[in-house]
Amino acid sequence: MHFIYLYKSEITKSFQTMKKLLLSFAILFFFATYSTAQNDFVLRQKFVLDNNVPVKMIAAPDLEALHLEDIQRDKLGLLYRIGLASTVNITPLNSGIWTTLPNGDRKWQLVVKSSGAEALSFLFETFKLYGA
User: Fold this and answer.
1) Fewer CB atoms < 10 Å away: N or C end of the chain?
2) Is residue 34 scored above 70 in pLDDT?
3) Residue 108 in 3-state DSSP?
4) Which residue segment(s) compose the domain that 18 sits in?
5) d(CA 118, CA 111)
6) b/e map of 79-93 (b: 16 or more CB within 10 Å)?
């Protein structure tokens, strides 16, 4: 069995060293986070859709047929369905509206709706920033 006895001056010195080390890491973290942040001009603005933003309606699925499928899946012991994937052709080139902001940045806006949907989630197959 090893026993180490630290004198009070050694404990105080260790505590001060640890405080300096933690402060250094906090400052490093702050600058690392701050330096990688992008221009957040768009994010600082209050998020309000423009009046002329087009609405893209997605056809609702056949809920009756889905309910019957869910009953069959339940009988087979399969996992519950929590959503339905649907492929659409929505791009910044064929849908939505572009607006140039006062600082020269551009924003793309589009409203997507589907009647009867509890929520909509989006997965981008390809995402390109044009003109960057």
Assistant:
1) N
2) no
3) strand
4) 1-37
5) 15
6) eeeeeeeeeeeeeee
User: What pLDDT digit, counting tens, does each position of 68-124 carry?
Assistant: 999 999 999 998 888 888 888 888 889 999 989 888 888 889 999 988 888 888 888
Q: Which of 72, 71, 84 is nearest to 119 (CA)?
A: 84
Q: Which of 88, 85, 98 is nearest to 54 (CA)?
A: 98
- Strand pairing report for 55-57 and 97-100: unpaired
Integer Cα distance of 128 and 132 in angstroms? 9
The tokens for 95 are 């849908």
* pTM: predicted TM-score of the whole model, two decimal places: 0.55
Does residue 40 carry a pLDDT above 80?
no
Q: Where are the beta strands (DSSP E) in the chain?
A: 55-57, 97-100, 106-109, 111-113
Identify which has the larger pLDDT, 80 or 36: 80
Same domain membership, residue 97 and residue 70? yes
Residue 77 and residue 60: Cα distance in Å, rounded? 26
